[in-house]
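> call design_seq(struct)
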């Protein structure tokens, strides 16, 4: 079981920002001896979960993960129910609409809708830390305190000068999110990008995901945020109601 956890940790090292990593980088990031990291990568490569770049000492995720991700999405009620609402949000707001879920540690983007259909991505699986995104904070604010503390214990990485890296500041921000019903990302994950996110609930009332309107900061002035927040929260409520009305099974 420990080896399985280590193998998953290896896969978690990769991201869109770093799709290709060296053996040394992976070993250093996980605090593992190089021989141990090499054995884990060899096992993952044999399973088709990672591939090695020719004879180079660099690795990237394998296409088998794409197939597995597609299977997971095909059985995800949130993905199927929310897609038309996300598309409508993009058209109404003029901004990109992101549909997200939470995997226990990170917020996972499972779909993205834009006004230009050619730019829509059919499978958009990307993991980001929840403390610095509107979608992540919209979910995190309504999860048990133990989950929030686990995220804090994992480290609040700084991405911009606006990122909340102080635990007390994050806790206070999540309290604000719970009170007003939506979360903001004011250039906390990336300079020049702002986001308004709201939680999506399952039929039992538990928060299972979030949706956001995301775009350039100059299109998200303070005077427009309230309007966008109303639109995003209305969309999140509509998705929640559609999930509740979905036949069981």
């Amino acid at each position: 079981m420990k080896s399985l956890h280590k193998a998953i940790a290896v896969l978690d090292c990769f991201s869109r920002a770093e799709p290709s990593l060296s053996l040394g980088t992976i070993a250093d990031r996980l605090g593992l001896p190089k021989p141990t990291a090499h054995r884990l990568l060899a096992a993952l490569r044999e399973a088709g979960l990672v591939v090695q770049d020719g004879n180079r000492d660099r690795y990237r995720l394998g296409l088998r993960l794409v197939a597995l991700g597609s299977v997971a999405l095909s059985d995800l009620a949130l993905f199927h129910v929310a897609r038309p609402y996300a598309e409508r949000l993009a058209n109404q707001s003029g901004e990109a609409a992101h549909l997200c879920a939470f995997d226990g540690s990170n917020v996972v983007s499972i779909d993205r809708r834009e006004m230009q259909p050619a730019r829509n991505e059919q499978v958009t699986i990307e993991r980001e830390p929840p403390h610095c995104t509107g979608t992540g904070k919209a979910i995190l604010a309504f999860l048990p305190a133990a989950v929030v503390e686990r995220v804090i214990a994992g480290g609040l990485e700084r991405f911009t000068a606006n990122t909340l890296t102080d635990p007390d500041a994050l806790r206070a921000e999540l309290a604000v999110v719970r009170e007003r019903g939506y979360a903001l990302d004011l250039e906390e994950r990336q300079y020049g990008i702002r986001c308004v996110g709201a939680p999506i609930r399952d039929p039992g009332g538990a928060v299972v995901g979030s949706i956001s309107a995301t775009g350039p900061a100059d299109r998200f002035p303070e005077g427009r945020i309230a309007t966008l927040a109303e639109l995003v929260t209305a969309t999140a409520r509509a998705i929640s109601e559609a999930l509740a009305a979905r036949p069981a099974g």
